[in-house]
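Chain A, query sequence.
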Amino acid sequence: MDIYQDLHRYGDRTAVVDACGTRYSYRELHDMVTAFGAALPSVGRALILLRTRNRIESLVGYLGGIAANHVVLPVDRSVGDDLVRQVREAYRPEYVWEESPSDGVPLFTAGSYRLVRTDHAPGGADLHERLSAVLLTSGSTGSPKGVRLSRRSLNANASSIAEYLTLDASERAITSLPMSYSYGLSVINSHLWAGGTLLLTDDSLVKREFWDFFREHRATSFSGVPYTYDMLDTLRFAHMELPSLRSFTQAGGKLRAETVERYAAEAKKRSAGFYVMYGQTEATARIAYLRADLHPDKSESIGAAIPDGKLYLRDTNGLAVSEPHTHGNLHYEGANVMLGYARNRADLSKGDDLGGCLDTGDIAYFDQDGDYYIVGRRSRFVKMSGVRTDLDQIERQLQQAGFTCVCGGKDEELSIALEDISAARSVKQLLRRMFHIDPGQVRLIEVAAIPKTAHGKTAYAQMFGSADEGDSR
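Chain A, predicted structure.
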């Protein structure tokens, strides 16, 4: 199965239902994808910037660009003009597929979307033959840093996800995440792989319209990041009547243990599955999973590797860690691993830098059952008075104490973004008491609200100035 070429194999099954209730069969979707590809040059390759929304036109551009052997660069429609300008300058796409009355004569149209040629000279010869997509990393607010993915990686991850979630043609997944986000894209890919139905909506799950659409079209699943589950709490999800719901998934950051336990219990009550997952854009979204409703005693775990993938640990000397409960640097191997990073057009000519082996940048251990637990991120550790300090642990302790804040920093300086600066003294007292951190080493930043990325994750870079803070997990 190739989700870019073989859509027609599912014939008249419903592939997509859009927000207006319009249905598209797999055969119709295949024909639209083919028509999009036919509008692109048949000789050579091109880079296509996709301004994505959870709409059929965006889906056609994504699938059609790759099916025609070109390279796609999805950027969410909500992303600001400054970053889009940086992306265009860095990667010099030959074409843009977007919803706008673009200047010039479009090469192809669908709905309000137009495919137009840019003023960048054709340069497809510099696109590596294995490259199919460039996804901006989750920490790249204000930066065009991207991940280079092959068609093989995208298909491999779709296959693995469909296998462990036991997806089939009866599944109806609602798009609760942006298509440009690797996690949201993997939901789309895995359901197309399985011949399921995508319920495309741009509505946020905090809107009544989202849940009306969910019920009307009998969605069987939704996906979310930790922020999503915070919102579900405020919406009193436990009281919602959703008889068609079979499963819900979480990735994109660590969910608090008590939240995992609560939603695992909720899943059992609904006879549904609750999957807690771990992943990175660098591995085409998902790396490990845990069926949390079946393992309530492992609320801190990310579980085991996805099918056809392998997790393992290495110590600081690069040697394999073989003993349970021993910390090590987490590595992953699989066909879904990226080719490498990109920061500009020149990088798109590079081949496979990693050979299917990814150093995740996380510190972890495994238990006697082989299930893994993330301890922290190497870039999320700083030394305070010579002591290695876990920023994520400090952040959790402060939040559990009732402070709305997040942590960043560098060696010998702990930075804390705090919504209520009047709590500064109490925060510093807690840090001294629990972590023995001198108040003089603490830099407090007042923010009106903790900013989030378009993916619903904490925008560490916006507050602390480092695009590496808070990478996708």
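The chain has eleven helices and 26 strands. The mean pLDDT is 91.
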